[in-house]
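User: Sequence recovery, please. Input:
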């Protein structure tokens, strides 16, 4: 069953271009992984340092495999340097 993964990141006061470049590169890597369907990035209108990424995967296991992958772990280390607080993840089933 397809899942949607909500990834919340609160960035420090960092150049938006740097953040977007990293997000695009991370998404490009995810696109090559088994089970990846799509993703979108939302920026909070009230707090431009608050980002919500919505990723769709064919299964929770596909998402978990990507989350544990070395390439993603390396990106998370880079993101961590720019974050104000810890990343928050939530996984939802699509439909009932």
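Assistant: Recovered sequence (96 residues):
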């Amino acid at each position: 069953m397809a899942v949607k993964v909500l990834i919340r990141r609160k960035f420090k006061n960092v150049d938006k271009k740097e953040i977007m470049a990293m997000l695009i590169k991370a998404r490009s890597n995810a696109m090559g992984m088994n089970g990846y369907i799509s993703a979108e990035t939302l920026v909070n209108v009230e707090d431009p340092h608050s980002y919500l990424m919505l990723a769709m995967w064919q299964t929770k296991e596909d998402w978990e495999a990507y989350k544990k992958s070395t390439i993603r772990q390396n990106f998370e280390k880079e993101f961590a340097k720019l974050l104000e607080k810890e990343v928050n993840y939530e996984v939802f089933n699509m439909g009932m």
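The chain has a mean pLDDT of 93.
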